[in-house]
Amino acid sequence: MEKVPAAGYEIEGMWISGLQRRLTWENLIFPFKVISSLIKSRKILKRFRPQVVVGVGGYASGPMLRAATSRKIPSLIQEQNSYAGLTNKILSKQADRICVAYDHMEKYFPYEKIVVTGNPVRKDIEHLESKRQQALDHFNLDQKKITVLVTGGSLGARTINESILKGLKLFKKTGLQLIWQAGSFYYKDISEAVAEMDVDNVQLYEFINEMDLAYSAADVVVARAGALTISELCLAGKPAILIPSPNVAEDHQTKNAKALVAEDAAQLVTDRDAQKNLATEVLNLVADTLLREKLGENIKKLGRPHAAEDIAKEVIKLAG
Known about the structure:
The protein is built from 13 helices and ten strands.
């Protein structure tokens, strides 16, 4: 609701939320939210008169796509994850085209509607090799040392932060240096804890704007397994240890991570085991040059740098 208007586009909200997978009073008002959102969707369609409607999953897409297909307006849905969300599975029956980021999605969607496009990601992640020296200078890093990039997203990830904090002194002892995005929720506490540990191998940030430089400097990446994070890692071609968030719908981050593990393109540490095992797994991967090279090569093969253009072409086809 902030970024879209900031980019110069209109946005309208719906009175809608996700259906809870447990008994809760919120589910009692869910039907009223759906009806309200369907009515508003029809009004928007009547006023805006689109040639195509695009949904990117999640409960906010549901009413609009449903209203559009009932009016015979061509529709496209994009599924970012390796495990289809409930909304997209329901909408796929009426949608004209389904753009996906992973192979083998016919177990969720009609095969004839699927187009494998990948997920759109920032363009500056391409051609990272040419930015290596600039990246090392920007983050004040020693080019002779291995660099680990740690990120739990813009808000941060408690498990990742606590696990890395636990291994900081060991990382320093073994000569590793870190670029660490702690996130807005945890930055203050983490920065205070790091200050007390007397370590000088950490570049700690609340948020990193120059993610292209962070990826360029990194020899190993530690991150959650969200769809867009994985798409960025594929484009960057970086060996990664993924710690899927357990607090997401249908545990889709674990499924995303396992899809890469099956291709020998990443390693997985569960959120439950991270505090015990993550630091050791980082050190093991750093020490194994051949494994790092293999993971980097395999994850690079999964990258789709033209995803945005490919999805846009499908939208234009539907518009006639």
